[in-house]
TrEMBL record:
Keyword Oxidoreductase among record annotations: yes
Entry keyword set: NAD, Oxidoreductase
Domain (Aldehyde dehydrogenase): residue spans on this chain: 15-482
Gene3D superfamilies for this protein: Aldehyde Dehydrogenase, Chain A, domain 1 (3.40.605.10), Aldehyde Dehydrogenase, Chain A, domain 2 (3.40.309.10)
InterPro entries noted in UniProt: Ald_DH/histidinol_DH (IPR016161), Ald_DH_C (IPR016163), Ald_DH_CS_GLU (IPR029510), Ald_DH_N (IPR016162), Aldehyde_DH_dom (IPR015590), ALDH7A1-like (IPR044638)
Protein name: aldehyde dehydrogenase (NAD(+))
Active site, renumbered: E249
Pfam families: Aldedh
């Protein structure tokens, strides 16, 4: 039985219990989770707030060593953690192993940042005066994460937040509670004092109410959220009332432009992985392939053939993708399938994979889990729900274009701005696309999905508020700049009033 952990101890309170089930084998209960109430969420924030000053006083290089310990522990337990992720959310084992490696990479990067939390010395306009800047931790952070990347994405928040001297309350997705608990245990085993990292298992409403109370009490100074655009708006509004700027990483409707000079086989390979990896349940999953009219038919033929041939099924075996993450995502995906209209051309079967709606070459038993057909829908256009909105599942829209300007306009039209890609052999097209696209991330001849630990990750528009995770850029989310001016002249010097000006003859004659 999994419980919230506050100040290093499991919380006894809570009567509601939720089962975390294996979506590939629904009769397999991975864990039972006791749900916390808003008071527990607030208590966790209170514990973190109380522990923050002492943790910030630990020298940054020493905090960096704790981060190194976390990375070493995760690496030593990598296979067990990856298999737990696959069992709990149905992600293919190869992807789960890559996700765990992402934690290790993140820890290796931020170990060094513990010795590089640099400020600057700044020249003063006054004599006998020095100016300095320092990075200071923001305080206590509330981190709320989704479960499609149940261990990698949390590490993007937790590792830099802790390194910078903040304390954390982490609220993971309930359908990935066992993976979260395992990651929490690895973190605290690396040397974190009690109260520095707190784990809260709660549903969305209870979390929101507990966070609201913690903000009212001044216990939380930063909120990080990965999830839907709708919930992100609500969290952004709540934080705004407290004059805080949250870190919001939200949904995506990520475009892939395929130009007339593209390597079509490479583009198809990228579309297959971007559209159907993790069953299309990534914020960076391919939303719409925007294909030049001269190659539209051939691309579609090759893409449909590759999709039909792809292995789908048991995530412990060699498959492109496994089940939906959870029953609620399956239900939402069926709603998205209802957006298909008579003006669209559907390639392949649609809906849940069953004995009555089979998929050739399915790996395993489709009746055991939440498995769905990969769907390609041609002919989507602006104004269609399928074009305008995120469809979290194995569905890719396809449309055509005539000019690159038209392609860029189509790519920007839904208003999301997370990830994007262009397939081309023409550098001019690649750079024109980069200049015109509103996405925070651009790939050339690569998938819309994929991130590296030292590159900024994040989106704009409906995909986020411009905050960035990963790399040195995330330090600006978890530190505040403090300026210091030190006057050792022995008298009061007034900036902008007593500025030394050297005499100059401003007249000049030829």
């Amino acid at each position: 039985m999994l419980r919230s952990i506050v100040d290093g101890s499991p919380v006894a309170a809570g009567s509601r219990v939720l089962d975390s089930r294996n979506p590939a084998h629904l009769d397999d209960v991975v864990a039972q989770v006791v749900l916390a109430d808003p008071a527990t969420v607030t208590a966790a924030a209170r514990s973190a707030h109380a522990a923050q000053r002492a943790w910030a006083d630990v020298p940054a290089p020493v905090r960096g060593q704790v981060i190194a310990n976390i990375g070493a522990l995760v690496e030593a337990n990598a296979e067990a953690l990856a298999r737990l992720v696959t069992r709990e959310i149905g992600k293919p084992l190869a992807e789960s192993r890559g996700e765990v490696q992402e934690i290790v990479d993140t820890c290796r990067f931020f170990l060094g940042e513990g010795r590089r939390l640099y400020g600057q010395t700044v020249p003063s306009e006054m004599p006998d005066k020095q100016l300095f800047t320092f990075r200071e931790p923001v305080g206590t952070a509330m981190i709320i994460t989704a479960g499609n990347f149940p261990v990698a994405v949390p590490s993007w928040y937790l590792v830099p937040a802790l390194l910078c001297g903040n304390t954390v309350v982490w609220k993971p997705a309930l359908y990935a509670a066992a993976s979260a608990d395992a990651l929490y245990q690895l973190f605290v085993s690396a040397g974190l004092p009690a109260g520095v990292l707190n784990l809260v298992h709660a549903d969305g409403t209870e979390t929101f109410n507990g966070l609201s109370q913690a903000l009212d009490e001044g216990l939380v100074q930063k909120v990080g959220f990965t999830g839907s655009t709708e919930v992100g708006r609500a969290i952004g509004a709540l934080c705004g009332r407290h004059l805080q700027s949250p870190c919001l990483e939200l949904g995506g409707k990520n475009p892939m432009v395929v130009t007339e000079d593209a390597d079509l086989d490479l583009a198809v390979e990228g579309a297959l992985f971007a559209g159907f990896g993790t069953a299309g349940q990534r914020c960076t999953s391919l939303g719409t392939a925007i294909v030049h009219e001269s190659v539209h038919g051939e691309f579609l033929r090759r893409f449909a053939a590759a999709t039909a041939a792809a292995a789908v099924g048991d995530p412990t075996r060699d498959v492109l993708y496994g089940p939906m993450l959870d029953e609620r995502f399956a239900a939402a995906y069926e709603k998205y399938l209802g957006w298909i209209s008579g003006g669209h051309r559907v390639l392949g079967a649609v809906g849940r994979i069953t004995a009555d709606n089979p998929r050739a070459g399915f790996v395993g038993d489709p009746a055991a889990g939440l498995f769905y057909h990969p769907v390609i829908v041609d002919g989507v256009r602006p104004g269609d729900d399928l074009f305008d909105h995120e469809t979290f599942g194995p569905l890719v829209g396809v449309t055509s274009y005539g000019t690159l300007d038209e392609a860029i306009a189509l790519a920007n039209a839904p208003g999301y701005g997370l990830s994007s890609a262009i397939y081309t052999t023409d550098p001019k097209k690649a750079f024109a696309f980069r200049r015109g696209i509103g996405a925070g991330m651009v790939s050339v001849n690569n998938s819309t999905s994929g991130a590296e630990a030292h590159l900024p990750f994040g989106g704009n528009g409906r995909s986020g508020n411009g905050s960035r995770q990963s790399g040195m850029w995330v330090l600006d989310q978890f530190t505040r700049w403090q300026a210091l001016n030190w006057d050792y002249s022995g008298r009061l010097q007034k900036a902008q009033i007593e500025v030394a000006v050297l005499p100059a003859d401003l007249t000049f004659r030829l």
